[in-house]
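for the record, two folds in this file. i put them one after another cuz i was lazy. first one right below, seq on top, structure tokens after. the second one comes after a little note so u can tell where it starts
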Amino acid sequence: MLEDLDLLKAEQMLSYGRSIDLGLSGESRRLTRHDHLGRGILPEQFFVDEQHRLLVALSGIRAYLYDPKAQERLQKRIGWQRKRRKQK
């Protein structure tokens, strides 16, 4: 396994977990859990959908959630910040 895509970490394991059915956006989706365990890291859990898209990543007190509208929201926020700077 690699840390930050450049440091090889020994004694790491990525294992297949169980599948769960979860209601997301008004739809029932089957998510499959994968666990990353190993020496010198916090355990991580990854949940992927039937199309193998990463939807949730958990590690320690952090959670990362897939948001299909994130790019659109980011562009709006950048535009808003640029307008605000021009007004100053």
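(here's the note) second protein begins now
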Amino acid sequence: MLIQSQQNNGQPFFITFACTRRFLLGIAISITGVSQGWAQSVSPAPPVSPPTHSQLAARERALSNRMRELEATFLRLADLLDTTDPRRATTLRSAFEQARELEVTDRLDTIVELLEKGQLLKAGTGQDAAIDRLRELLAVLESGENRKTVTDSKKKVKEFLGRINNLIARQMGLEGTTEAGGNPEEIAKKQDTLEDDTQSLAEDVDAFRRESANAAGIKSKSDSDDNPQSEPAKDGSSNESPEGQGGENSSSPDQGSDSGEKKSDQQEPQGNDEVSRADRTNRRLEAARSRMQEAKEKLDAVEPDAARKEQERALAELEAARAELEEILRQLREEEIERLLVKLEARIRDMLRAERMVLRGVEQLSNEAATTSKRERELESTRLGSEQNVITANITRALTLVRDDGSAVAIPEALQQIREDSSLAADRLKRSDYGSFTQGIVEGLVASLEELLSALERAEREQQDRQEQGQARGRPAKPGEQPLVDKIAELKMLRILQTRVNGRTSRFSALLNEGTEQASETELIEALGRLAHRQERVERAAHDIATGRTE
């Protein structure tokens, strides 16, 4: 049904793409409806009889089947769009991969089994997690651009910055040689080569602008709008930057007035978005190329003083273009950080919910020791250990995300410690060791995840504040290299890690003195060794933050 509307001209696809998003949103809403159904079945009987367990399971199974159809639709649409709209095809494939990574259909199938068995509380928890995963998937579709495309854009802009830095260095060299009285003929040849390289960069930046406009759904400018760039650029008097209208221009009033007239005919875009900045960068490069052409003509006419003034103006245009590219890179980094924080927050929230369920199960095992058989307790402890292993795997995925970013120190260390404790808790539960020592580890995991979630929520709010304030707080020392979280947030997280090390040290000291803990002395000694290693890593993280190093 969704595929039939995909035909020519691209327009029907936007309808199809919107239908896909609405279809996904409908699944999430339907899950909520099923949740309300089982909530009625565990609440006091209302006047209208609630749905039975089998009815709820049937509705959930229908949602699972719809989700499978939607995943298949992602791939079919992506194949159709490979030639006409490759960027959106990439988005759909990313949504498919995200759905598989989040195991959405598997979770829905598990909920069906729980509903059939009448385990309504566990089914409700699973439905909450499924809704969170569907929201993540919906965010991928709504963004129209996944993390990979943002990374690709960053690589392109960094490449542009490297090339423009090279152009600036070469232009400065030519300006110095001209001022020193070098051979005008040789300088003119080098200036001509530099002009060609500048033109090549301008064309690449303009192609990047068009790609960004298509991705953002902005209608590309017509050729008639773009043509004026090349015509006035040849006389060297248009698209002049404020830097290029300094003291030299004030000494040439005729030329300055001519430039003002040309600028009034073609105004620069005033937006601060990626497309507008790329457009301004292209115009600056065209203006720089025009100045280089003027400088070459002056050199051919053996007028070095006039040529040097044109070279200075060309240099000012190049520096203005570099500033625009740095701002694009900074904005891309902000977007990348925002997406990563949202993804991390969703994962940590999901893990915290699961960890609380494990803690509740461990507490029940300890409380029901006298009323249940040993075999039953062993089976339940093994099941909790398996659930803890799933949490460990999710922590590993979150840790990989942060390490791939490579700009944080304390957060990766926090996740590393949580993963170690989670793995230790899973091993002990699988050995049917659910005593106070194991329970303390699980309680620590809940507290650690709560603290990490709170830190990420603060970082996300601060990131949004920075974006809203724009330039109010100034530009980073290295544009485009903004860290995932600032140093203050890193130090706060490091303080939490050190506090937890101190608390665990005190606890182990009390256990060794009292001798009442179920854990053996050998286990405590091994735990102390791990704690010592953890203290070393916290110290190393503090050193890295102080010296400005990242992973």
